[in-house]
Structure formats: structure tokens, C-alpha cells
């Protein structure tokens, strides 16, 4: 199965991060995993990558409810990154509940591919891999 070069988890829940990283390693999901605990740290880290001429992660798993900068605020800033590989990035919203307003709101962002309920399962990640092929 195809493997992703770099993925990114943006979430403030250490248990979710630990579990997701473990599953990613088990199914050989990607070569490298970037982790940020809020949207601001993620923006700083991704801007640093682009300033160094490095590629952005192929996949970003984004929580909506975080301190400092939430997922919606991150998306607003992320779409402003002047990087020619931003359009190669796929964002998956991850949340512990389905809010119909959130489902409607994600339609405003071309970069958002889907909404996945926590916790992520190996099957969820395998479906992400299949969609990247």
C-alpha cells in the first residue's frame, strides 16, 4: 500500500495524539509525523517549513476545539500560506462529536476533505491512504 511522506496532527489531547501515532506506525501510514498542540503552534511550524523551502505535510488531522487558536482559526490562516504545494495538502477535521453546523461550515474550505469522528481507527487511516492514491 502507498505510504504518505509526512502527516500532521493538530490536537491538544495527548491521549488522542498517542493513540493516533501508534496506529500510524502499526499500519505504516507515513514516514514522519508532525504534532502541534494548537493552531498557532501549527501555523508557526508550517510557516517555518515553507520558509525553508520544505514541503508541507500531505495530510493534516485537525481538531476544532483547542486553546490559543482553534481549528477554524487555523484554517483561516492556513489558506493564506503562499506555498505552491498547499493545494497538495488534504485536511481531515477530527472531532469527538458531530455538529451539523461544523459539517456545513467545512464545505467553505476546499482544502478540507472529510470529517472523522474520534478516535481514529486503523480503518479510518487506511481509507485516507486509499483516497491519496
Question: How does the SSE layout of this entry go?
Answer:
Layout: E1 4-10, H1 14-26, E2 30-36, H2 39-51, E3 59-63, H3 71-78, E4 90-95, H4 100-105, E5 112-117, H5 122-132
Parallel strand pairs: 1-2, 1-3, 3-4, 4-5
* Number of separate domains: 1
- The rounded Rg comes to 14 Å
| Annotation, overall tally of beta strands | 5
Secondary-structure class: alpha/beta
Number of helices: 5
Strand numbers in spatial order across the main sheet: 2-1-3-4-5
Separation, N- and C-terminal Cα atoms = 9 Å
Corresponding CATH architecture? 3-Layer(aba) Sandwich
Outline: globular
- Main CATH class: Alpha Beta
Give the helix level as a range of percent: 25-40%
β-strand percent reads 15-25%
Query: Residue-averaged pLDDT, rounded?
Result: 90
CATH-defined superfamily: Response regulator
What name is given to the CATH topology? Rossmann fold
**Uncertain residue ranges:** none
Secondary-structure element order, as H and E?
Answer: EHEHEHEHEH
Largest sheet report: 5 strands, parallel
Word description of this protein:
This is Response regulatory domain-containing protein. InterPro entries: CheY-like_superfamily (IPR011006), Sig_transdc_resp-reg_receiver (IPR001789), TCS_response_regulator (IPR052893). One of its GO terms (biological process) is phosphorelay signal transduction system. Keywords: Phosphoprotein. The structure is a single chain. The protein has five helices and five strands. The N and C termini lie close together (9 Å). Helix 2 packs parallel to helix 3. Helix content is 38%, strand content 23%. It has a five-stranded parallel beta sheet with strand order 2-1-3-4-5. It has 133 residues and is α/β, with parallel strands linked by helices. It has a single domain, classed as Response regulator (Rossmann fold). It is globular, with a radius of gyration of 14 Å.
Amino acid at each position: 500500500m502507498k505510504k504518505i511522506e509526512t502527516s500532521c496532527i493538530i490536537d491538544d489531547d495527548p491521549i488522542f495524539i498517542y493513540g493516533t501515532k501508534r496506529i500510524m506506525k502499526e499500519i505504516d501510514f507515513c514516514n514522519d509525523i508532525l504534532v502541534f498542540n494548537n493552531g498557532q503552534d501549527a501555523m508557526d511550524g508550517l510557516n517555518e517549513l515553507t520558509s525553508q523551502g520544505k514541503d508541507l505535510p500531505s495530510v493534516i488531522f485537525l481538531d476544532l476545539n483547542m486553546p490559543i487558536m482553534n481549528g477554524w482559526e487555523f484554517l483561516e490562516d492556513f489558506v493564506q500560506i503562499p506555498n505552491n504545494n498547499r493545494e497538495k495538502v488534504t485536511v481531515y477535521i477530527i472531532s469527538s462529536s458531530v455538529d451539523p453546523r461544523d459539517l456545513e461550515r467545512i464545505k467553505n474550505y476546499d482544502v478540507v476533505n472529510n470529517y472523522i469522528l474520534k478516535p481514529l481507527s486503523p480503518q479510518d487511516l487506511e481509507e485516507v491512504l486509499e483516497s491519496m492514491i
